[in-house]
Amino acid sequence: MKKIERIVLNALRRQLEIFKQLAKKLEEEQKNKQTDLPAIQKEMEKQLETLREERIRQYEAYAEGMTDQECYLKVKKELNQKIDKIQEKYERLLTITTEDGELMKEIQVVKQEAEQAEVFDKMTRHIAETFIDEVIIYDAEKIEIRFLFDDLIAEMTEKIEREKKEDVAV
Q: Residue 8 and residue 37: Cα distance in Å, rounded?
């Protein structure tokens, strides 16, 4: 039993180390984003306002007879498409920001629990209940350990990969 506890504790420490590395990387990316986000949001809001004002000007020009209906409708359609495109990007940015915030909250919770668990030299019931979902012993050579935060690690890894793809695409 002690041998299994030692194996599980060592596996937990390795998994927590991976978690901490991923968390650090995401936190750095989050800091960089946070400085850019307000400026990006302001710029998008400014673009939306400018396009809406232009749409009003185009209507006024049409109403005053300075532009014919066909020209007005064409320009209005183009402006509406631009507005919709920017609005969609803006909403996507807000959604991503919200999702990032939720992910970072989950990361902080596990991170705090991990810091508390690091002081223990042996497996305790508290550590097991906090981090271990299941331990399956197949035989003397094969043990499967499922951690409660495995999904979070997968989500963090996925996010880092998405960020890399977005950086390459930009």
A: 41
Task: Return the DSSP state at 66.
Answer: S
- Token pair for residue 155? 């989500």
> Angle 155-159-162 (CA atoms, 0-180°, nearest 5)?
140
Residues 156/22, Cβ–Cβ less than 8 Å: yes
Measure the CA–CA gap between 110 and 127, rounded to whole angstroms. 12
Which residue shows structure tokens 């803006």? 90
pLDDT of residue 170: 44
The DSSP element (H or E) to which 67 belongs, if any, is none
- Over its C-alpha atoms, the chain yields an Rg (Å, rounded) of 26
pLDDT tens across 68-106, in order? 999 999 999 999 999 999 999 888 888 877 777 788 888
- The 8-class DSSP code of residue 140 comes to T
Residue 145: closest CA among 34, 29, 10: 10
Contact 20, 135 (CB under 8 A): no
Helix (H) or strand (E) holding 85: helix 69-117
Residue 15: burial class (beta carbons within 10 Å; 0-12, 13-18, 19+): middle
